[in-house]
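From the methods appendix. Each design record in this collection lists the tokenized structure first, followed by the designed amino acid sequence. Records were kept in a plain field format so they could be parsed without special tools. The example shown here is representative of the layout used throughout.

RECORD:
FOLD TOKENS (499 positions):
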């Protein structure tokens, strides 16, 4: 009877192990990121463990029975750990990407330092300065909120032509308070006269508007069996807050073809002079298109360059630093020597940690061609990051990557598609052909749709030959043709005006 009881205990523990092992197997192979080439080996390992455990369980010696129970308990614990680990890994990958279903507009109410009061109610019949060129919807929302705050049916406003005229009116004392969306402050401070705007003014109050973002239409595209294009936008804001609204200081088109294992990186000067869809297609600086949302930037770039853009990815420079450090640094082939602050960048191969790499991609004033060269450095660094991510060396750093990147991306790419791409690379660890270009153009001083036609800002007129070339290379990739690094047309004709 005692032997039967012991056998029953061993049998139960073995059955629990078998069930947990099979559950783990089916969860693992159904997980999108699990490489298909490991399905059969995993099944063989589990089958062998089940057989060994079963054989030991039926042996009659006392110490065999003890080993059987102990082995089953250990294996059950391992299976349970696997069942917990897989969902945990999935959650950590999901946590990298921020929720893009909504965003916030922050409309600040500014006063000059000399006219600052703690509360709006402290002002006697104030005049609010507004402008009619940009951000009308958020501005109107702020006005309605102010009416409620002041318990008034109407408030006094002074309407100016554009943002800069509105700021000028505040400085000149033509109104008491300025309504200005936070995303425009960087553009205001680009104007020499208002370069100290943040120090010259104080925020009396802020009105926050929650914005339900427009979701993209479902893209009927198999992401691992066809080429897709991602627009990488980098924000360099004072707050460091990731948003789908705001100037883009990094503008990169990335074509990815998993079938042919090719990537083409195309860096665009942020001052590229192109039509702004949100402002009746008036000509504007590329960086300003982002003030009306990343979808506006994607539409403008897509129309001008003739390239269908499927997804966006928004990062800031902190994200870039975190990625580089989590990867253990990157190696780049630097085209020429330059110095920035305490950092020297010799010509040739350089290994950089996150801090040094951040200086590398942000510096422009000490470079021969300013923003053009900065764009070049950004494509060089992105190429190095992609090469590192595509290698098995990066797999050992996955924990650091997940920790460093939590909440550091805004993207329209579905998490399931990310899993598919990871699984594709894990399946065969194929090398990728990575091509990079940084486009140039002719520098000029022109009016813009967003900041006014009378106010001349630095812009870049793209070379049509380069636009055509990128279109052609994109079509080749789309047709699964193998491309190679070519000489970019008019590359030596770029004309830069220091600004």
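DESIGN:
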């Amino acid at each position: 009877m005692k032997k039967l009881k012991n056998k029953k205990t061993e049998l139960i523990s073995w059955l629990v192990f078998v069930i947990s092992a099979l559950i783990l197997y089916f969860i693992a192979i159904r997980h999108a990121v699990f490489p298909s080439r490991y399905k059969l080996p995993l099944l063989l390992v589990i089958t062998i463990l089940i057989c060994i455990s079963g054989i030991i369980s039926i042996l009659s010696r006392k110490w065999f029975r003890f080993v059987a129970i102990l082995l089953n308990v250990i294996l059950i614990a391992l299976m349970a750990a696997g069942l917990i680990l897989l969902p945990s890994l999935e959650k950590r990958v999901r946590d990298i990407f921020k929720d893009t279903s909504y965003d916030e507009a922050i409309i600040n109410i500014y006063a000059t330092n000399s006219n600052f009061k703690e509360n709006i109610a402290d002002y006697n019949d104030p005049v609010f300065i507004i402008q009619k060129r940009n951000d009308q919807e958020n501005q109107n929302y702020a006005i309605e909120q102010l009416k409620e705050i002041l318990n008034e049916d109407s408030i006094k406003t002074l309407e100016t032509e554009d943002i800069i005229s509105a700021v000028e009116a505040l400085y000149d004392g033509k109104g008491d308070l300025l309504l200005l969306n936070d995303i425009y402050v960087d553009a205001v401070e680009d104007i020499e006269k208002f370069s100290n705007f943040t120090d010259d003014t104080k925020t009396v109050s802020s009105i926050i508007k929650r914005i339900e973002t427009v979701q993209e239409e479902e893209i009927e595209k198999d992401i691992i069996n066809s080429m897709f294009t991602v627009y990488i936008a980098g924000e360099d804001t004072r707050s460091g807050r990731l948003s789908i609204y705001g100037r883009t200081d990094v503008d990169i088109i990335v074509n990815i073809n998993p079938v042919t294992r090719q990537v083409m990186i195309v860096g665009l000067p942020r001052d590229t002079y192109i039509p702004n869809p949100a402002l009746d297609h008036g000509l504007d600086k590329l960086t300003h298109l982002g003030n009306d949302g990343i979808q506006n930037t994607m539409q403008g770039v897509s129309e001008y360059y003739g390239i269908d853009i499927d997804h966006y990815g928004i990062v800031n420079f902190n994200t870039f630093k975190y990625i580089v450090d989590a990867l253990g640094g990157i190696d780049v082939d630097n085209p020429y020597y330059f110095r920035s602050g305490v950092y020297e960048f010799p010509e040739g191969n350089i290994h950089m940690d996150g801090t040094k790499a951040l200086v590398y991609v942000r510096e422009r004033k000490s470079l021969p061609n300013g923003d053009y060269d900065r764009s070049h450095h950004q494509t060089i660094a992105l190429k190095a990051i992609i090469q590192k991510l595509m290698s098995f060396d990066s797999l050992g750093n996955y924990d650091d990557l997940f920790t460093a990147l939590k909440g550091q991306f805004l993207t329209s790419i579905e998490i399931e598609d990310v899993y598919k791409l990871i699984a594709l690379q894990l399946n065969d660890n194929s090398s990728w052909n990575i091509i990079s270009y940084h486009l140039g153009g002719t520098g000029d001083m022109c009016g813009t749709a967003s900041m006014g036609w009378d106010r001349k800002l630095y812009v870049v007129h793209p070379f049509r030959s380069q636009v055509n070339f990128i279109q052609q290379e994109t079509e080749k990739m789309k047709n699964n043709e193998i491309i190679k690094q070519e000489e970019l047309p008019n590359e030596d004709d770029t004309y830069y005006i220091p600004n």
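APPENDIX NOTE: The mean pLDDT is 85.
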